Amino acid sequence: MTDDTKPGADAPGEAGGAVSEPAAGPAPDPPAAADAAPPKAAPPKPEPAAAARPKSEPAPPAKPAAAEAARQAPTAASAKPAAPEKPAKPAAAAKPAAAAKPRPKPKPKPPPEPPKGPPDPPPPEGMESPAAVAAVQEALPDAIEALSYWVGDWTLIVRRERLLDVLELLKTHEAAAFDYCSDVTATDWPPRERRFDLIYCLYSTRLRHRVRVKVRVGEDDAVESVTGLWPAANWLEREVFDQFGVNIVNHPDRRRILMPDEWQGHPQRKDYPLEGPGELLMENPQDWLRVRNLPDEAGTDREPGPDTEIE
Question: Could you give phi then psi for residue 153, rounded to 5 degrees?
């Protein structure tokens, strides 16, 4: 018994011979739709609003918002009448607001008092005086009123009566040797009784050091000229006399150097008027020439020259 024939299997040729093939005919119908699984329904797509209308009817044009508002405005106005406007109250009837109290003005500060003089600070404690100053302190201790040191410069404030003694010592002493008087000037302090500070600036060309000598004088106090020690002080003292009116005596040629001889007052004084003396305030130079020539014309009879002619 071979593998091709198994028990229970119909062998070919058995039960009436060979198996006949089915006759050719139409194909059997497919299974009914009810038997098949129903397909999943897709969600419906939203149709545009325009699609609801038939294609034959065109969509109405959109109305502008401004035109729609203008169309509805008369309707709203006719529905509710506007309330009549109330007349405005006159301004006088309005209650005035409470006026703010003005703040009191602060009292003006009084002007500061004018300084009565320069500070003239003393030298720091423990600082030794230079040899020239020490020589004066040792030889003429009663002639020095005060000693000042400021920004590296030494100043001897001496008595007016001992001025020449101090200056002569500073010129002739070996430790001083101040052979050059570089400047003579003055400052004015009206509130002070001795209002002028007469200042001599000295320099030693050999030892190359400096010192200042200051003397305080009043308007009528006489100050001896130092032209006998330093001839170069001649014009410097004339300028001090001309601008400040310091009474320098025993001067070889004491007269004005900047202002005319007939000028009234001394321009560098702090109480001098800003516009000058009124009787000599002349804008026309010819008038000034006439005032200048009045003494000559009164004393001598001479023909008028080009300086005396007034047009």
Answer: -110, 140
Which CATH number covers residue 182?
3.30.460.80
Residue 74 lies inside a defined structural domain of this protein: no
Torsion of CA 10, 11, 12, 14, to 10 degrees: -70
Structure confidence at residue 10 as a pLDDT band (50, 70, 90): very low
Domain membership of residue 151 as a residue range: 131-258
Per the structure, the count of domains in the chain is 1
Which pLDDT tens digit goes with each residue over 148-198?
999 999 999 999 999 999 999 999 999 999 999 999 999 999 989 999 999
Asked whether residue 5 is assigned to any structural domain, the reply reads no
Contacts 24+ apart (CB under 8 A), 126-132: 129/154, 130/154, 130/209, 130/211, 131/175, 131/176, 132/170, 132/173, 132/175, 132/176, 132/178, 132/204, 132/209, 132/211
Strands 210-217 and 196-203, bridge-based pairing: antiparallel
Q: pTM of the entire structure?
A: 0.57
The answer to the question of residue 218 being in a domain is yes
